[in-house]
Structures are given as structure tokens and as C-alpha cells.
């Protein structure tokens, strides 16, 4: 019927108004229905609270490391939901730290949780969410300083350069100097707080701390001792200008 009205031999003006109105309404209805379906498909699902560690162990027949790796993959892919690519700015960062904690408890020797906390979630341009993640790194560092020192060193750098929060950067660097005392921790990480004190204009404080460290005899690494000796000379030159 409609084909006859739309036959190329007849002009469009010959189509009855009622038929045209019907076609417009039908087309509009179809477009609206598709738009509603699309919205339903791309609606982001909230990140749920993780189950207890014991529940995951039971579900995996006491294979916590395998479960940890599966959760790693799941969390890593969470920002890519069907029909939607989520921005990290849309995620609940407190909830993310709960998942990272769960993954780390299932596999205490794994590095994934701290790696993504520092390099992925902690690197977005959202100060509030960055602070949540840096605080998480700081808390985990305090649980095992000699294992997590590199992530707190990264957090200190983020606080300094990204957040422009020098007191926070110094807090993290000072914790490194105080608690990350194992031989495998490099001196550049333990001595970060001296550079931050210099950047903050706390020249005399830096000189006193470095001088005391040198005189204590605790420094056995010749490279670190040379670094500190040169640093105190630089500070003395600055203070005399």
C-alpha cells in the first residue's frame, strides 16, 4: 500500500498527510526505543564490595593465588563494561582500595595491587582520588616498609609534582628514611627527604639531619656517603649566599 504512494512515478506531495504523520510517529518511536535500549546497555555498574577472603578461598577450593590472579584481571578490565568505556574518574576509589586489599591478602607476595595503585589509579588528574590512592599506598607501606618502599617513593613524587603538596611529599619521604632500613633499599629513596627539605627552603634543617647521619657512622655505602657529603656542601654554599 505504502509502496504505491511512494512509487517513483508519483510525486511525494501525493502521499496522504495521515500516512506521512503515521510514518513520522513510527520512526520517532523506533528511534526513542533504540535510544532507551542504548542507555540501558551503557549504564555503568557500581563496583560492589568484595566478599571476605575466606569466601574466595572456599570458592576456589583453597587456591588463593589463582583466585588473586583472576580478580586482578577482573578489576583491571572493570573500566571496560559492555557498551561502555568508563573513565577512572568515575570509579569509587575507596571501593577500589578494598578490592586491592582483598587481592593482596589472597596473594601476599604479589605486586599487582601496589603497582596499579601507584601507576594507574594514582596517576589520574583528579586530586581527591589521587589522595585516596596515595594514602592507601602509605598505609600498606607502614605494614611492610622494606617491601613496599618503591611505591611510597613514587607516591612522594606524585605528591610533589602532581598535587604540588610539599608537606605530604615530605611526610612520605621522611617515612622512607625512618622505616625502609633494609640493605636492598637504595639510598636515593632513603635520602629523598633531604632534597624535599632543600626544595622547601629548609636548608638548615637539611644540613643538621645530613650532618647527624654522616657522623652517626650508620652509612656504609660509599656512594650514599659521597652523595650526602656533596649534598651538605651544596647546602652550605646556598646558606652562605
Write a concise synopsis of the structure shown.
This protein has 241 residues and is mainly α. 68% of the residues lie in helices and 2% in strands.
Describe this entry's structure for a reader:
The chain is mainly alpha-helical and 241 residues long. Helices cover 68% and strands 2% of the residues. It has helices spanning 2-5, 17-42, 53-59, 64-76, 93-106, 112-119, 127-143, 145-161, 166-179, 187-190, 192-199, 203-216, 222-240; strands at residues 80-81, 84-85. A hairpin with a 2-residue loop joins strand 1 (80-81) and strand 2 (84-85). The protein is elongated, with a radius of gyration of 30 Å. The relative contact order is 0.06. Residues 1-10 and 37-44 have low confidence and may be disordered.
Amino acid at each position: 500500500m505504502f509502496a504505491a504512494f511512494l512509487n517513483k512515478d508519483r510525486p511525494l506531495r501525493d502521499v496522504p498527510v495521515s500516512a506521512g504523520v503515521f510514518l513520522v510517529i513510527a520512526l520517532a518511536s523506533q528511534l526513542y526505543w533504540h535510544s532507551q535500549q542504548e542507555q540501558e546497555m551503557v549504564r555503568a555498574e557500581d563496583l560492589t564490595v568484595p566478599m571476605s577472603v575466606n569466601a574466595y578461598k572456599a570458592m576456589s577450593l583453597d587456591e588463593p593465588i589463582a583466585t588473586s590472579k583472576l580478580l586482578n584481571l577482573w578489576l583491571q578490565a572493570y573500566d571496560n563494561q559492555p557498551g561502555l568505556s568508563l573513565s577512572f574518574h568515575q570509579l569509587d576509589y575507596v571501593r577500589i582500595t578494598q578490592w586491592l586489599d582483598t587481592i593482596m591478602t589472597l596473594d601476599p607476595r604479589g605486586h599487582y595491587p601496589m603497582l596499579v595503585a601507584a601507576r594507574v589509579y594514582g596517576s589520574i588528574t583528579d586530586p581527591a582520588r589521587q589522595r585516596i590512592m596515595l594514602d592507601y599506598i602509605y598505609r600498606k607501606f607502614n605494614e611492610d616498609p622494606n617491601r613496599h618502599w618503591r611505591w611510597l617513593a613514587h607516591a612522594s613524587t606524585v605528591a610533589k609534582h602532581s598535587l604540588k603538596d610539599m608537606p605530604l611529599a615530605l611526610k612520605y619521604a621522611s617515612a622512607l628514611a625512618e622505616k625502609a632500613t633494609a640493605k636492598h633499599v637504595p639510598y636515593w629513596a632513603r635520602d629523598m627527604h633531604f632534597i624535599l627539605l632543600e626544595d622547601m627552603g629548609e636548608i638548615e634543617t637539611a644540613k643538621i639531619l645530613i650532618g647527624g647521619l654522616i657522623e652517626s657512622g650508620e652509612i656504609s655505602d660509599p656512594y650514599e656517603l659521597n652523595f650526602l657529603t656533596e649534598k651538605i656542601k651544596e647546602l652550605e654554599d646556598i646558606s652562605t649566599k
